[in-house]
Write a structure and sequence with these properties.
Blueprint (H helix, E strand, L loop, with lengths): L1 H19 L10 E5 L2 E4 L5 E3 L2 E5 L9 E11 L7 E2 L1 E4 L12 E2 L6 E2 L5 E9 L9 E8 L4 E2 L4 E3 L10 E3 L2 E7 L6 H6 L13 H11 L3 H5 L10 H20 L27
Parallel strand pairs: 1-12, 4-15
Antiparallel strand pairs: 1-5, 2-3, 5-10, 6-9, 7-11, 8-10, 11-15, 13-14
Helix pairs in contact: 3-5
Amino acid sequence: MKSTLSLLFLLAGALLSCQKDAIPLFDSDEAGVYFCYRSGWSSNGTEYYADSIAYSFGRAEKEATEYTIEIPVAAMGKVADYPRPVRVTIDNERTTATAGVHYQVDLQSVVIPPGAGSTIIPVRFFRVPEMLEREFRVALALEENEHFRLYIREQKNTNLYSAAGEKISATRLLMVASELYTEPFYWRIFCTERNGWYFGPWSAAKYTLVNSIAGWADADWATAGSTASPVQLGRFGYVALLVQKHLQALADAGTPAREADGSLMQQGGAYAVDYSAYE
């Protein structure tokens, strides 16, 4: 009985202590700002956040010429009844893309609207041939100004309270855009001299051309040969013939298709293009 009473007194004392040491409220006219890009979520309501984003035009429709990534910026503190500009800059040390060529973003008009607690920064990436060979990076950086401080430099990558969460940056965000592909296994084993060459040695530029002419997508090659995929060995001869005619027409017109290294785009065996005029 004594032990039970002692435990009750200890609990009561702890509750009184908690009331005395109440957490102070954020009662300041100053406000903070941070990136809050949501990378995913689960069915139980858990959200995940990231400080880097990768996008590949290989997942886009072949007609797509650009893609926009929307970057959310959130404010903390009191909501204002007037527009508050947010200072965002390009981190040149981490950026490899060229503005106006590979991407476009207006950082001069990033504003938290009146009565709002967040805004969006749209970053447009342009699909350029160089993305077949390399990736291009754009890094954004939040900076302090007369309206916002950087109270949060790091944050958890999840909203789940009980999870420790990986630490990510709340003031720096990296975007990576490309159209990089890897040679599919089905191409590697069937487009050989022993099997009739068909499209010949693989390259990213030729791969996208073949897909464009055949109406295939990059994802179709992952299941090539199965009944679920349009990519079938039995169709290679017909598609290779269509590609040959396309490449030959370009060559005859004086505008031959070339690989990234400047060499003439060529198929193999019976599907080779006549480039004798360029020898």
